C-alpha cells in the first residue's frame, strides 16, 4: 500500500475539506425533502453549522490585527431569523443561489486549471520539466481535487529524478480517484528508481486488479523491476568479489585498463580484447565489464576505426572479430548488457553494415551477436527499434552472393529448440540469423538439411511479429510459393526434422494471414489445398496448425471454400469438434462458420453429419466467446435450409440462444449472431415461438436489436 502522505497538516486539511463537501450535500438533500420533519431537522443542523463557523471565524479574528471598530456589513442571518421573517422557500432559494455561485466559481476555476494544465503539458513536451511543474502547481491552486494535475506533475518530478515528490503526488491523485491507473504506474516507476522493489511490484499489481486487460503492461513493468533488482544484486556481488581480492575479478579490471590505454598498436589491442572475452565467462565477469565502463571501448580510436571502417586491413579484421566475440561474451544471457550495447548509436548503426561488409568471418560473428540478443524479450524489442527494412535489404544482398556463403551462415546454429505456446513453435537459436527475407536460400533449394529450413522459416515467423515486415512478406509471391513447394507443403515422413519444418511453415503462414491483400487471395486455393492434405497427419500439432491456417485462408476466397468443401472439410471439422482440444476446436468452428456463410453445400453437409445440431448446441454452452459466436453464426446459416429448424423442436436451442443473445459477453458477435439465429429459427419454424414467449424472448430480442444494425 502507498506510504503515508509526507505533509500531515495538508492531509488533515484535505480530509476536512472532503467532509465539509459531504455534509453540505447531505444538508441540501434534507432541505429539498418533501417531508416537513426532515426539512425542519436540516434547517436546525444548518443553523448549528453556521454558528460553529461564525465562532471559528471570530476565534481566528481574535488572533489577528483586524480593526474590530469597523462595522461588519456582510453578516448573514441564521436560518431561524430567516424563518421568522420569511418563508422556508426564501431560505431554500438563498441556499440554491449560494450553490449556483459555488458551481460557477468551480467552473471558472476548472477552466483556469485546464488552461494551466495545457501550458504545463506544452512545457513538458518541450523538455522544460521545471516550468511544467510550476504550471501544474498553479493549476492545483485553482482546483485542488484535479487528479490529472497530480499525475502530470508526478511525471515531471520523475523526469527530474525527484522520486519522493512523485510518489506524494501519486498518492494525492489516488485520493481524488482511487482507480487511477496512471498514478499506480508512475508510483511504481518512482519506487523502482528508489530501489523499493516490493512497493514497485505492489503498485503494478494494483494496476492489474483495476484493469485486467493491462496484463501485457503489467508483465513488462514487473519484468523491468525484476531486471533492475537482478542488476543491483549482481553489482553488489561483483563489488564483494573485488573487495575479497578475487583473481578473476581483478584480472578483468586490469585488462580493461590495458585496453583503454592509448598509444598501442592494433595487434596489442586485439590480444587484450581476446583475453578479456575469455575472462568475461560468467555473470560476475559480465557485471564487472559493465561497471568498469567496458562498453566505452569504442572511445578508443584504433578500436573504433576497425569497427567502423569501410575497408579493413587484415589486422583490423582481426580486431573487429575480437570485439564482436567480446560483446557476445558480455551479452550472453545478460539483458542489461544487451541494452547498453544496442543503445549505443555507433553499434546500432554499424551492425547492419557489418552484415554486408564482404568479410565472411565478420558477417558470421555479427549474425551470432544479433541472434544472441534476439533470444530475450527485451533484446528483441531493442532490435525491433532498428531499421528493419535496411536489415532486410542487406541480408537479401548477402544471401544472394554465393550459395557457399549462405550455407555457411545457416551452418551457424548448432541446435533448434521448439517449445509449445498453443501450437505455435517459438524458435530459439543461440547462433543464427534473426531477420531473413524470402530470397533466403531455403527458398531457392540451396539448403538440403530440414533443420536449416525449419530454422529459416521459423525466423521468418518471428519476423512477422513486426507489422511492417509482416505486410511486406505477405505481399511477396516468392514467399508464398516457397511455403507451397512440394517437399514442404505435402505430407512428409514422420520424422522430428520433418515435423519441425512443417510446423515452421504453418507458423509462418498463420502470421502472414493476419494481413489481407491480393497476393493472399491469389494463393488462397493452393494454401487451403495443402492444409486439407495435412489434416490427416499423425502429428497433432501439425493438424492443429493446418486447421488454423484454413480458418484464416478461407476468408480470403470463396473459391477456396468450394474446393475444401468438395474435399470433405466439413466432416473433418465436425470430427475435430467432437474429440480435439480447445485450440483445434476454436479453429475448426471458425472454419465451419466461414464455409457455411458462402457455401450452401457446406450447410447441407453440416445438417447431414451433425444430427439435430448436437455439436453446435454443445458449443453454444462454451465459456469461449469466440467459439460461441462462431457456433451461433454457423447455426444461423444452416437454419436457412428447409427442415433444419424443424429438427430442433423439443431441443433446448431457444433457451441456449436467448441466454447468449441477452448475455453480457464482451464480444458483441455473440449477442448479434445468437439473435440472428433465434430470429431465423422462429421464422422458419413458428412452433418455436411459444417457447420464446414463455422465456420472455421477445423482450430479449428487442434489447439485442442494437447489435443487428451493423449486420
Automatic annotation (TrEMBL):
GO terms for biological process: axonemal dynein complex assembly; sperm axoneme assembly. It holds the Pfam family TPR_2. SMART domains: TPR. The keyword Repeat applies. One of its GO terms (cellular component) is cytoplasm. Keywords: Repeat, TPR repeat. InterPro entries: ARM-like (IPR011989), ARM-type_fold (IPR016024), TPR-like_helical_dom_sf (IPR011990), TPR_2 (IPR013105), TPR_rpt (IPR019734), TTC12 (IPR043195). Gene3D superfamilies: Leucine-rich Repeat Variant, Tetratricopeptide repeat domain. Signal peptide: none annotated. The keyword Metal-binding does not apply. It comes from the Eukaryota. TPR repeats lie at residues 181-214. This is TTC12 protein. It comes from Myiagra hebetior. The gene is Ttc12.
